[in-house]
Design a protein that fits this description.
single chain, 179 residues, mainly alpha, 6 helices, 86% helix, elongated
Length: 179
Amino acid sequence: VQLIKSVSQRIESDVQQRLAIGFLIAVILMFASMAILFSSYSQPIMVLTAIPFGIIGALIGHLLLGEPLTLWSMAGIVAVSGIVVNDNIVLIHFINSRIHQEMPMIKAILSAGRARFRPIILTTITSFLGLIPMLFEKSFEAQFLIPMAVSISFGVLFATSISFFLVPSLSLIRDDLRT
């Protein structure tokens, strides 16, 4: 029994290490592709600032529901990172398109907030609500997926809430620093 636990712990440690390396590579690739898309180095950083809030949201969800952090939780955190990055890309792209139309920064931000608020919020709410049945599933087969559902649902909810304030604020700061 002790041998099985030891082997299991080594395998889990190896998978966690590979997941962390894969996550780092994914963040680097996201940054590079956004730098090309936005022709900027600062805007991809603004987009990636949502990732820590997704992680915090996932951890809060685990604490609130009393779920242990597992390997599947980590996979959920990787997934939530992609979701919240996508939301911020949409928001910044919309701000950029308004600026290219000669709109002042504050008006571009307000316009982007009005135009993208509902689609982003609907995506967030439907993601959260769609995972609620999984969060309260009692079957043995679903137990290993519940930590991933917690990470995704609470991570998306928290990061999106913060991003609606963070991205516009960082956009204004970036604009102030450029002038």
